[in-house]
Amino acid sequence: MNKTFLAGIALGLSALTLVACNEKASEPVAEAPEGIPGLVVSNARLILPPVAGNPAAVYFDLKNGGKDAVSLAAADVADAKSAMLHETTETDGKMTMGHMASLDIKPGETVAFAPGGKHVMAMDVSPELQPGAKTEVTLTFSSGDKISFPADVVAAGADR
Questions:
Q1: In this predicted structure, what is the pLDDT of residue 159?
Q2: In 21-109, at which residue ranges do the beta strands (DSSP E only) sit?
Q3: Which of 2, 67, 106, 137 is most buried, taking the most CB atoms under 10 A from its CB?
Q4: Residue range 46-67, pLDDT digits in tens
Q5: Distance from C-alpha of 126 to C-alpha of 80, rounded to nearest angstrom
Q6: Are 158 and 67 within 8 A, CB to CB?
Q7: In whole angstroms, what is the distance from residue 89 CA to residue 82 CA?
């Protein structure tokens, strides 16, 4: 068998094993095997809406431990009909929330997606999604590379 093919399989299985073995929310839950070396997601959680039918919010920490800048372009949540990058900002003394077209992340930089700031808004979340479950979140970068990771599902009003 081709050595390159076997090496690729071994690398893929190693990455899956690392992700599958990680159970702590504060530790990295995913690393980008699809072509963005050093990109790590940690502390991922989806907060269910307090009112059924309202959007849910996804929060996480995204660290660029690689040597090149990356540009986050889109997000997808497996158990939602649609998702988009959002950011809460202050303009003329008013807090507003709106669509974030993209986000550049420099090498060595960690960006927190947290309440009151950047987040992924998940629309029309499945009513079957309950606290204690997990859902898959996929981030897409301007390069076309993607990274997917599990997010813990948390009840509305719980510690964010």
A1: 64
A2: 28-31, 39-47, 56-64, 70-77, 80-91, 94-99, 103-105
A3: 137
A4: 999 999 889 999 999 999 999 9
A5: 6
A6: no
A7: 22
Question: Where do the structural domains in the chain lie, given as residue ranges?
Answer: 3-154
- Contact status, residue 52 vs residue 130, Cβ threshold 8 Å: no
Residue in this structure with the two tokens 């980008």, named with its chain if needed: 32
- Rounded to 10 degrees, the C-alpha dihedral 137/138/142/145 comes to 150
Q: pTM for the full model?
A: 0.76
CB 131 within 8 Å of CB 56: no
Contact yes or no for 60/137 (Cβ under 8 A): yes
For the chain, the average pLDDT equals 82
What pLDDT digit, counting tens, does each position of 75-114 carry?
999 999 999 999 988 888 888 888 888 999 999 999 999 9
Q: Which two tokens stand for residue 51?
A: 């009112």
CATH architecture of 3-154: Sandwich (2.60)
Q: Could you give the CA distance from residue 85 to residue 55 in angstroms, rounded to a whole number?
A: 12
**Residue 26: per-residue pLDDT:** 42
What is the helix (H) or strand (E) element at residue 146, kind and residue range?
strand 146-154
